[in-house]
Amino acid sequence: MAFLELNAPLRSNETFRNKLDEYYHKDSSPLEELPINITSAVLIFWTKGKKPVQLINPDEISHKLVNTKSFLPSEFNRLPRTLEEVEYWKATEFKTIFLYTGPIVLKGRLKTSFYKHFMLLSCAVRLLISPETCHAYNNVARDLLKQFVTEYSSHYGEEYVGYNVHGLIHVCDFVLIHDALDAFSAFKFENYLQFIKKSSKNFRYSLQDVYNHIIEQINAKTNNITFSYSILKHELPYDKILNNSIIDILYEQIVLEQYIVSSKHVKDKYFIIQNYDIIEVNKIIKYFNGEIKIEVTKFKCSSFFDNPISSDLITIFYIDTIILEPQPQLINLDCLKYKCLTLPIDKNKYVAIALLHRKTTNHINLTNQQHQ
């Protein structure tokens, strides 16, 4: 069943449950036969579909995806896998390629018309997933999604414009009601399934086993100490070259409530600050009075693309040259606005992509940590 009409009357809960649409409601729901989501469907088209829509060189894209592993910030739940394994990808892996790595690794490696079509969806979702843009640019996202749905049939066939594809044109309405996409996302439930799966050790009484583990987890959380961020980790030995003072202490890492900051690992070093400068963290300093600051290098940045919208709107930037300063730049932790996934695209050129999705798992190991 295809859904080609963009301005059809909206269904309500009552009309759907009463099956008033005789054309739609048959013996069983067609939802049972639909793919899980648009992102998986499109990627499967590219890898397993008919020749006109297949990737020209999927191995090259797989290689590029796997090479992003060392750059993915600690907040990402899963590392990328090859396209050969796309049928086994988890939802968070599709999310990563559509919101973060896809615009980089697919550029120049996917047919131009398909790449432009892909970017319609990617840009729209980035607008809707950010609390700062989901309302202000809701109509822009709506236009992008309508264009994506309209062009979907010409790329993949009218018969594939199913319920999931058609439903994209209504996503903006739900954002206006419920706020940014992550506010009503199902990713946290999918991630919790892993805990449920690992909780079941007794095949005879699996339900009781899972229930008992959930209760144990709830009780453990109730009895846990509430930790106060920021949490400094891995104190560095005194170095007369690096340390500005004998009484100041340098750390390799600091754990904040939303993300990890590192002075060592490239995946956790790059941020966008409040004035939208892009910075690299060089030092994490705790002063004698307990104050914490970070020493940074600032970079000039520019738009990565201008079509279908300016990448500035969805916080994706080229990193250009270093902004030279006469003195080391020290900033407070509250200057940090977004953490960035920073990927190399050329010998001396990088793209910084702001992390917009909310953290869905606790990536912090609270054992043997120093609390501030």
State the gist of this model:
By secondary structure, the protein is α+β, with helices and mostly antiparallel strands.
Explain the overall architecture.
Helix content is 33%, strand content 19%. The protein is α+β, with helices and mostly antiparallel strands and 372 residues long. The chain has a six-stranded antiparallel barrel with strand order 4-5-6-7-10-9. Strand 2 (249-255) and strand 3 (260-262) form a beta hairpin. Helix 4 packs across helix 5, helix 5 (112-129) runs antiparallel to helix 6 (138-156) and helix 6 (138-156) runs antiparallel to helix 8. The longest helix is centred in the middle third of the chain and has 19 residues, at 138-156. It starts with 12 loop residues before the first helix and ends with a strand.
Could you name the key traits of this structure?
372 residues; globular; 33% helix; alpha+beta
Strand and helix layout:
Layout: H1 13-17, H2 38-48, H3 58-67, H4 91-105, H5 112-129, H6 138-156, H7 163-166, H8 171-178, H9 187-199, H10 206-223, E1 231-235, E2 249-255, E3 260-262, E4 270-273, E5 278-286, E6 292-303, E7 316-323, E8 329-332, E9 336-346, E10 349-354, E11 370-371
Antiparallel strand pairs: 1-2, 1-11, 2-3, 2-5, 4-5, 4-9, 5-6, 6-7, 6-8, 7-10, 9-10
Helix pairs in contact: 4-5, 5-6, 6-8
